[in-house]
Amino acid sequence: QLAERFIREESAFYTPPKPDRIAEDFVFRGPTVGPLCKRDYLTTLGTFEVYKAFPDIQPNPFGFVIDPDNPRLVRFFVRNTGTNDGPFGLGNGISIPSTGREVRGATEAFSILFDSNNLVKMLTVGYVCDRFEGNTFGLGAALGLMNVVGLPIKPGPLYNFTTWLNNRVLGLPAKTVSAPEDVPAWWPHEERGAEGYY
């Protein structure tokens, strides 16, 4: 199955990236991150190198279904597990040293939209189903992992300010949103980052 293969082997989160599996008009979206274009998505995940910070990380995906309204959209769940045995990259040579802590993630809802060439056109992640599961403090995706390794980043006004500072002033390589002009024109939503969510 294309969706399971992508999430396990090609996404740049659980394994090194396979950019040729991602469409040029790709959009990434999560509750507090995105929209990210392909370039910013790959640069951001290349900064974190989650698969090196958690060398044994597994998404443990399950419940794959094709959306009844869109035969190219696959919805499913993940529940991350792994051990922080490597540094977690933050960019500009800064990283959080390994902690040896294990992650037991909350169940997250994901979706993948494929284009007519079976390339990934959209990836959504991090929508936590039960915030009381696991040890990621009710957070999904990279935010949940950051909290496990001791970087207490939580959505809210301080998060919004620091992400604005990074994206608009400091220009660090890891982004939470792409510049509006870099977001593919097909993406219909105006909300950026956590707007409308938190």
What does this structure look like?
With 198 residues, this protein is an alpha+beta fold. It contains five helices and ten strands; from the N terminus they run αββααββββββββαα. The strands form three sheets. The chain has a six-stranded mixed beta sheet with strand order 2-1-10-9-4-3. It has a two-stranded antiparallel ribbon with strand order 5-8. The chain is globular. The mean pLDDT is 89.
How does the helix and strand content classify structurally?
alpha+beta
Low-confidence stretches: none
Strand order of the largest sheet: 2-1-10-9-4-3
Q: What's the quaternary structure here?
A: single chain
Order of helices and strands, N to C?
HEEHHEEEEEEEEHH
Total helical segments: 5
Beta content comes to 25-35%
Q: Given the C-alpha coordinates, what overall shape results?
A: globular
Intertermini distance: 34 Å
Q: What is the typical, i.e. mean, pLDDT?
A: 89
The number of E-state strands comes to 10
Largest sheet: 6 strands, mixed
> Percentage of helical residues?
10-25%
Rounded radius of gyration (Å): 16 Å
Summarize this structure briefly:
With 198 residues, the chain is an alpha+beta fold. It is built from five helices and ten strands, in the order H-E-E-H-H-E-E-E-E-E-E-E-E-H-H.
Salient structural properties:
198 residues, alpha+beta, two-stranded antiparallel sheet, 10 strands, globular
What is the element layout, followed by pairings?
Blueprint: H1 2-10, E1 22-29, E2 36-37, H2 38-48, H3 50-53, E3 62-66, E4 73-78, E5 81-83, E6 88-91, E7 94-96, E8 102-104, E9 108-114, E10 120-128, H4 141-148, H5 157-170
Parallel strand pairs: 1-10
Antiparallel strand pairs: 1-2, 3-4, 4-9, 5-8, 6-7, 9-10
